[in-house]
Each structure stands twice: as C-alpha cells, then as structure tokens.
Amino acid sequence: MRWAWKRCTYIGSDDSATWPIATADEFEPIPRVCRMILAVYEPDLRCPKYAPAGGYRLNPDWVVKRVAYEQTLGNAPPYLIYIDHDNREIVLAIRGLNLIKESDYKLLLDNKLGMQMFDGGYVHHGLLKSATWVLDAESETLRRLWEENGKQYKMVFAGHSLGSGVAALLSVIVANHRNELGGIPRSLVRCYAVAPARCMSLNLAVKYADIICSVVLQDDFLPRTPTPLEDIFKSIFCLPCLLFLVCLRDTFIPEGRKLRDPRRLYAPGRIYHIVERKFCRCGRFPPEVRTAIPVDGRFEHIVLSCNATSDHAIIWIEREAEKALENLKESSTETITTPPKVQKLHRKLTLEKEHKDALERAVSLNIPHAVASGEEESSHNTDEGTSSSRGKDPSCYTEEGTSGNKDSLEKENSICKDPRTNWNEVVEKLFKRDESGQMLLKRDASVVEK
What we know:
Layout: H1 2-9, H2 24-27, H3 29-39, E1 63-67, H4 69-72, E2 79-84, E3 89-94, H5 102-109, E4 116-118, E5 121-123, H6 125-148, E6 154-160, H7 162-176, E7 189-194, E8 200-201, H8 202-207, E9 212-217, H9 229-234, H10 239-250, H11 255-260, E10 265-266, E11 270-275, E12 288-292, H12 314-331, H13 344-364, H14 373-388, H15 406-416, H16 423-430, E13 431-433, E14 439-441, H17 442-449
Helix pairs in contact: 3-12, 5-6, 6-7
C-alpha cells in the first residue's frame, strides 16, 4: 500500500521541484531547435505539409544538405544541415525513431550493458557507431562551412529521441577532437538533446553539461527509464506493462547501488524540465522551465502517467517550449530605464559555477570515473595543446608521445594519404581493448597496468 501510494502520487514535476527557473536568454534556442528537427520530416520546406503553429521560420535557401534513409543506408537516422545566418549557427539536426524502419531498431539493439567505453565512461555502442558514421560523412562539410563564415559561428548538434543520443555523442567526439573540424573552440560547440535517450554514464553526463542540454517535457518516459534502450524497444507494443514492471523493480534498488554502477546510462548534460501539470489538478497550466545539472536523483523515477508517452512527441515539446519561452520573456520584461534582473555575465558565471559544483558533487558521491573541476580544466588545456601541435594538416591524427620517431612519421604518412578524417580511426587511436574485449581510455588502461 505504501509503494502504491508513493507511485500513484508521484508526478513528473517532483523531479525538478527544487531546481531554479531558467532564464529566457538561455532557453531561447530550444524552440528554434525543435522546429529545426521537425523540418527533417518535411520533404519540401517550400511547400510544408506538417508545419507547426507559426511555421518553421526557416529559410529554405539556407538548407545546405538533406540526407534521407536512402543515403544513410541504415547507419544513421535522416538529418539535415542548415546554416542559420540570423543566429550565427551551423546546425546538424537529426530526426527521431521511425517505428517502421528496421535500421533504427538495429541501432538501438547494437548494445549490451557495459559493452562500450569512451572517454573514461560508458556509452551506447550503436549510437556511438552512428555518430562516427555521420562525422565520417559530414566532417568536411561542417569544417568548410565553419571556415567560410569566419570561424565565428556556433556548431550545433540537435536531435530528438533516437537522434538525441546520436547528437549527444557527436558533440562529445567533436569536443575531444576539435582540431578535426578546423580547431573550433569548445565554447562554440553545442548540443540540444530533445526527449533524450539514456546514452552515457553519469560521469560523462556531468562532464559535458557545459555543451550538452537535454530538454524533457513533464512526464516523458524515455529519460526516466533505466532499462537499456534495446530492451525498451523490444517491448514497444506493450510499453505500459514494461514501465510498470521496471517501476516496481527499481523501487527496491537503493540509490547508492545505482550510483555505484558505472555501466548505468543517463540522459546527458544540463537538464531543462518543462513543467505544465500539477498534482490533483485538471488540464495544463502555463508551462515553466526549471534547469539544473542533477547528479543524484537524475530522473531515476518512472512516472505512472497517461501522458508518459505523449510527452515524448516532438510536436508537443515544440509547442510547449514555445509557450514557455513566451512566459519567460513576459516575466522578465524590462523597460529601457530598468536594469535587467539577471545580468548576462552574472548568469554565465552562475552556469559555470553550477557545472563545477556538479563535478564536485559527482566526486563526493564516489561516482566511477568522475573527475573534479580542476582536473577537468587541466585535461581541456592538455587537449588544446596536443591538438595545436599535430602539424599543419589537422586531418593527420597521431598518438601522443610518438612525435620525432620514424614509426610515428610512417603512421602520419599512412593516415595522411586520405585527406578526410576517419572518425573510427580516431576512436581506435584514443582507446585500447583489454583482455575482455572492452575499449578503455589509454590513460585509464595505463593506470590499471601500473
């Protein structure tokens, strides 16, 4: 009875009850990104068939490239590349799961618990392969667009559902190898994961919270379901039964045990939670947006709600995000003679402090592979130094500590024969396989050997 009472009275807004309200400036790109993802579904933006209220507000002439299932050959969901001159952004938007496409299910099923390590944590193997395929295909295009526009535009990766996992891992790879896209600064790399899939371990989710933003609408089931993605979509047609059983099972798993499991995957980055329903209230209320970088209690509880699946739809998310942005703008209206309530510089410093606090919190909770903010900053500086010292041709990737040797020169010449970056080789160079066949970060593997 106690369990039934707790579960039946638990609502989605409880996850973010203590979080602060987001500002209009930081939330402003999200409705625009949602429309960008919706545009992937349109065969012709000049004559749209499924336009949201107010239209897509995109310039069809700025669409650089559209890629459908026929071109991806099942290696990735369809996507488009759009250059937004108004907001100075280069956007790669990826659509969500197609329930009638076998290739999308293959991506989800290509994973086992603890199968793939990356950058000191665990990630979804199939989504990582899809991300490397997209970079193999489009890295030259993205690099050319960024250089042609004065190296000033942001590089934005966006996706919904299945596409959110691919976009998140795209941004993680690019953040680690910025020289492969012309040396783009980390501060210009952004990712917006809408209705995010659980695709990376907790230490990585917190580590990359400065560049990845996840958007969750109230009771959405996918960010809350700890069951591996491959198990969820095996049971897509009896999903309510699965969610109830998972909810029952997780009730008896202690919080500490969840945090100590390094293979457990989570929704990535900073979370923006759109809340529009309240307990024992009928109908929807004006949506509000709460934001934080949670560590413990990071969307761990499934909500038994009739809206758990409808809140996952990109159409609803775009609509409610637009309403939430209008409410944020109205609540923060200032006249010319009134200074803004939250200075932009002060808010930027607050976001940076929240990220450092989250990193420290992860270390204090003994999260596997978590690093403190000081170690994170030093690793960023090291990455920048190594990327700038790899020669004039940024597509030539060599292992650290091999410069000056004949072997390294031979490796460089063999890799530089192909001017395009092979992102699978980049991943292989950064990691090594242990005796069990798992991929380990070479820095971590050397520590284990010692």
